[in-house]
Specification:
The complex is a heterodimer of chains A (278) and B (252).
Chain A lengths: L8 E10 L2 E11 L4 E6 L5 H8 L7 E6 L2 E2 L5 H8 L2 E4 L11 H11 L11 H14 L15 H13 L5 E5 L7 H18 L2 E5 L3 H9 E4 L4 E4 L11 E7 L2 E6 L1 H5 L4 H4 L7
Parallel strand pairs in A: 3-8, 3-11, 6-7, 7-8
Antiparallel strand pairs in A: 1-2, 1-4, 4-5, 9-10, 11-12
Helix pairs in contact in A: 3-4, 3-5, 4-5, 5-6, 6-7
Chain B lengths: L5 H19 L8 H40 L6 H39 L2 H7 L4 H39 L5 H11 L2 H27 L4 H32 L2
Helix pairs in contact in B: 1-5, 2-3, 2-5, 3-5, 3-6, 3-7, 3-8, 5-6, 5-7, 7-8
The chains are: A alpha/beta (278), B mainly alpha (252).
Chain lengths: 278, 252
């Protein structure tokens, strides 16, 4: 049997308190290449804080966070930039630079990263080509010269995804990628995220409120020949499921398991995040 | 008992940490030269329309006031020397810095503050760039380089304003003696403090603007508050720095 790939991300007993409130409490999780974790939870349950803690944007009080084999909690801010450049991050509101046109926004990580050596820096033509390719991936190549304020909320979110994946990171963190969007746009965004996962085999942590988002990630995969999402048979053995679900409450993980386990949960808090048909 | 001092002392400590990081980044890669030149254009060239009239009017007003006072003692011919000394030593650096603080400390604080409240600063960190290196250091270099240049321009324009008042308007002195007395009045000490002051003021304006911008919280209202604090604090620090430098140079 081949060795399991070493995990991209490992959290062990992570704790963080803001005053008396627990933002993260005894959080432990492991994420390997190609795996997805869907994180549900009420507002203020620590979902966004968890994503930010993974790349050291928030400093935790206790516990270990190993990202790409390096201990995030023991690195200084300056040493974290190199590590962060290997993980994509989509902010809740997109976090786009509003004074830059879309092309410059997506190009930003290519030309500005702290860890980019002058010799590795792409030429202007190479960078533009990569940006146009990535914008094409999110089906927004015509927005290259526009400003973020000229785009709709859904388009801005897609530009945010393009910027998060332009460096082809092995891990992408999505903070509420579908929040506040209409169902059609939300499904389109999730289809892009599934496509990104399957084309590049990237690992992802997805914070969301919509059960359908997790369902789509668990039940579909991108078919490159047909260029669309097709239903995927879920494995009989739940241990081999690539997409698993996490439910957070007051900073704690109160559920971890597959889609089927989530749907059959009897916990009243966990059931709030599951859409039941009929 | 001294609990009320905790917040200002902590803020000052944070300010010093930011200043330290901004200065360390001067010698640390990568260097964002494009941003430095862009900021020089915004802060330096962009401030010319307010610095030129301020310098001109300051020179003209001193000449007008001094011509009357000096005439009382029969020393009206010294107007050029008086204007050049006050302009180069004090008013040129001080007024230029106050105008630039009003325009740019506020501009920097509101720009960085807006970026902070819309998660753009966090996005920058998440994308692997140091906001201090990318945003603060270029503004520090740009302001520290352009403010002395703006001050020299303001000094020269101020002397021109004084000349127009003293020579063609009031006829209290001829053109040639005006310029020669203005030039002769200045010694190296005056020129040195006339250039050291704007360099220090430039550092104060940029760092105070960046500091308040980067610690903005509380949405658009917070941005407004940060902008006001940046201008007020930068102006106060400019006066404090003037006093300290004057104390040093007066004793030299």
């Amino acid at each position: 049997m081949p060795d399991a790939p070493s995990p991209i991300l490992e959290l062990k007993d992570v704790n963080l308190q803001f005053g008396e409130t627990w933002a993260l409490r005894d959080i432990s999780l492991v994420l390997s290449p190609g795996e997805t974790r869907i994180i549900f939870g009420a507002a203020g349950s620590g979902k966004t804080t968890l994503l930010k803690a993974v790349i050291g944007l928030v400093t935790v009080d206790q516990g270990g966070i190993k990202l790409f084999g390096e201990e995030v909690t023991s690195l200084k801010e300056h040493d974290l930039y190199g590590l962060r450049s290997r993980a994509g991050f989509l902010f809740q509101e997109g976090g786009l630079f509003d004074s830059f046109p879309i092309g410059d926004n997506v190009e930003y990580p290519l030309v500005n990263q702290q860890s980019t050596d002058a010799k590795d820096k792409p030429t202007e033509e190479q960078a533009e080509e990569r940006v146009r390719e990535t914008l094409k991936f999110v089906e927004l190549e015509e927005t290259f010269d526009k400003f973020p304020s000229e785009l709709s909320g859904g388009m801005r979110r897609r530009v945010g995804i393009a910027r998060a994946i332009v460096m082809e990171p092995p891990l992408v963190l999505y903070d509420s990628p579908t929040a506040g969007l209409d169902p059609i746009t939300a499904n389109m965004i999730m289809a892009l995220i599934a496509k990104e996962r399957d084309v590049r085999n990237s690992a992802s942590l997805i914070v969301t409120h919509r059960y359908q988002d997790g369902e789509l990630m668990a039940k579909f995969r991108y078919n490159p020949e047909r260029e669309e999402l097709v239903p995927e048979e879920e494995p009989a053995d739940p241990r081999s499921a690539r997409t698993k679900f996490i439910v957070m409450k007051e900073g704690e993980i109160v559920f971890f398991g597959t889609r089927k386990e989530l749907e059959s949960s009897e916990d009243s808090y966990v059931r709030r995040f599951v859409r039941h048909e009929g | 008992m001294l609990g009320f001092l905790r917040t200002p002392v902590a803020s000052f400590q944070e300010f010093l940490l930011l200043a330290g990081r901004a200065f360390v980044n001067l010698v640390r890669r990568p260097h964002y030269f494009d941003d430095v030149f862009l900021q020089m254009d915004i802060i330096g060239v962009g401030s010319l329309p307010i610095v030129i009239p301020t310098g001109f009017l300051a020179g003209a007003i001193i000449a007008l006031q001094m011509s009357r006072a000096l005439s009382t003692y029969g020393a009206a011919s010294e107007v050029g020397a008086i204007v050049s000394l006050t302009q180069v030593r004090e008013l040129g650096p001080l007024l230029t810095a106050l105008m630039v603080a009003g325009r740019n400390a506020s501009g920097i604080a509101s720009e960085l503050g807006s970026m902070k409240v819309t998660e753009q600063i966090d996005a920058m960190r998440a994308l692997g760039t140091d906001p201090v290196q990318k945003l603060v250091t270029p503004r520090l270099i740009a302001t520290a380089v352009t403010l002395p240049c703006l001050t020299v321009i303001a000094d020269a324009i101020g002397l021109l304003g004084a000349y127009l008042v003293a020579v063609p308007l009031l006829h209290i002195i001829a053109g040639q003696p005006f310029w020669s007395s203005s030039w002769r009045a200045l010694v190296m000490n005056d020129l040195a403090q006339g250039l050291i002051k704007p360099l220090l003021f430039g550092i104060i304006i940029s760092l105070v603007g960046c500091f308040y911008g980067l610690r903005t919280s509380g949405g658009t209202q917070g941005v407004g508050r940060a902008t006001t604090q940046a201008v007020v604090l930068a102006s106060i620090w400019i006066f404090i720095a003037t006093l300290l430098i004057d104390k040093i140079f007066v004793n030299l």
